[in-house]
Specification:
The protein has 146 residues and is α+β, with helices and mostly antiparallel strands. The chain is 22% helix and 37% strand.
Length: 146
């Protein structure tokens, strides 16, 4: 059994944005030559998330619209009362981002079969930025047989 891991970086461009990270993960699997096993993908931020879904432009727009309705940035949130807690000087008012993140997962596990992610025809692994733009990273661990 082989276990390998890496930390992959991504620079996001918008406050809410969605990135297809499938190819980056597959490239890491290829570099490890794992043929059968699983890939664990883990978001290391409280205002980002992961999902498996279709990476289609109109759906991505629908997801962003849905998230903005779910937790509007302009609503009143206790977490945004920065003067009532100890925070770094660059701390943003981002309670809405934390709430949006809670509707997703911070991790996904995908089987590896014959050296490839065993995703369905229209499935992609999506990294979801909810408080950007920022430099982010996500952890990938692959486990399996060569």
């Amino acid at each position: 059994m082989t276990i390998a891991h890496t930390l992959l970086k991504i620079s996001t461009a918008e406050s809410i944005d969605i990135y297809d990270i499938t190819e980056k993960i597959q490239a890491f699997i290829d570099s490890q030559a794992i043929q059968s096993g699983q890939a664990l993908i883990f978001s290391r931020h409280t205002t980002t998330a992961l999902a498996i879904n279709e990476y289609e432009e109109r759906l991505l727009t629908d997801i962003k619209t849905y998230l903005r309705k779910l937790a509007p940035p302009c609503d009143k949130y206790l977490h945004n009362d920065l003067h009532l807690r100890i925070v770094p000087p660059d701390e943003p008012e981002n309670a809405h981002s934390h709430l949006m993140a809670m509707t997703f997962s911070t991790s996904e596990i995908v089987p590896i079969v014959e050296g490839k992610l065993a995703l369905g025809t229209y499935q992609s692994i999506l990294f979801i930025e909810l408080d950007g733009p920022r430099d982010r990273n996500f952890f990938v661990q692959v486990t399996g047989e060569l």
